[in-house]
Amino acid sequence: MIAQKRGPSDKNATEEAESPKKRRTRHVAALILARGGSKGIPLKNIKLLAGVPLVGWVLRAAIDSGEFDR
């Protein structure tokens, strides 16, 4: 009989099947740092670019990525 190596996904599947109480949902939060001070362009994060503040483009990209739930 040949022993099969169990990968990380096999272990998780076994743990979930054994005890549903151990199941935890993982939350992923995004932290977007936007400094207001800049020597080149003061308050650049709130300056409009194509009618949207610069920080708005970053926020929209994070939301559209689908990787974050908070």
TrEMBL record:
It comes from Xiphophorus maculatus. PANTHER family: HAD SUPERFAMILY MEMBERS CMAS AND KDSC (PTHR21485), N-ACYLNEURAMINATE CYTIDYLYLTRANSFERASE (PTHR21485:SF3). GO terms for molecular function: N-acylneuraminate cytidylyltransferase activity. SUPFAM superfamilies: Nucleotide-diphospho-sugar transferases. Residues 7-20 have a biased composition (Basic and acidic residues). It holds the Pfam family CTP_transf_3. Residues 1-25 are annotated as: Disordered. This is N-acylneuraminate cytidylyltransferase.
